[in-house]
Request: fold
Amino acid sequence: MDTRGQHLLAEYYGCRNRLLNDKESVERLLRDAAVAAGATVVATVFHRFAPQGVSGVVVIEESHLSIHTWPEAGYAAVDFYTCGDCFPERAHETLMRGFEPDRAELLTVTRGLGWERSLRVDQHEFDGPWAVQASNGE
Reply:
């Protein structure tokens, strides 16, 4: 059994739209992101907080895609863990188009059995002037 997978952690800052507080829109965008990545959606659970914010998870056959938003700060935190033949970077591209952030931070971690170390940071990207990239577990 192949347990290897990719875990993408994304931070979206300065999102300019009201989407972050709209439960149905956030759910639709995350479902679209999962499909864009080639994942198979099994179920979704989303909750809107009072006075604001949305949390939710898209359960996929390959694992999950989850989010928590802070509309008052224009910020969203997303986590996408997948095994199999999915492409989580395509989910990130979909979310970038949907949230329209001023900037984003992305961390890609390789997980699972079959590696010398189970958790391995493959890439850490910032799109600001303080940009840093790490690869090969550094």
Q: What stands out?
A: The chain is about 20% helix and 40% strand.
